[in-house]
Design brief:
The protein is 49% helix and 17% strand. The chain contains four helices and three strands; from the N terminus they run ααβββαα.
Length: 109
């Protein structure tokens, strides 16, 4: 995955990036929740975004690694208007690199 080349390798750096992306999501109007997602036979639960009435949610499985949680956030935030947000160069590069792929997926749907 091309995104892996842009993600920080150190755990502390990944945690800082994760927090930055969660804050960016909040500033973009999402409510970010970290939940323990239970898995049972017959259905598959995973992290992602949804809408509950007028609230846009991002639910992150607490059991996922910080790197995987970053991937979820990047997928959901890619292509959003980020010009008014301050983002670190690493976060901005991740989101900008993911945006073209995100736009291609939307065009295919």
């Amino acid at each position: 995955m091309a995104r892996e080349a842009h993600k920080p390798a150190r755990a502390a750096d990944q945690l800082a990036l994760l927090e930055e992306l969660k804050n960016a999501a909040t500033r973009l109007g999402f409510e970010v929740r970290e939940e323990k997602l239970l898995r049972e036979v017959g259905y598959r639960v995973r992290s992602g975004g949804c809408r509950l009435r007028d609230t846009h949610l991002i639910i992150l499985d607490r059991g996922l690694s910080p790197g995987t949680q970053i991937d979820v956030l990047v997928d959901l935030l890619a292509g959003r208007p980020l010009d008014d947000l301050y983002l670190s160069p690493v976060a901005r590069r991740l989101l900008e690199c993911a945006a073209p792929a995100h736009q291609a997926e939307l065009a295919a749907d």
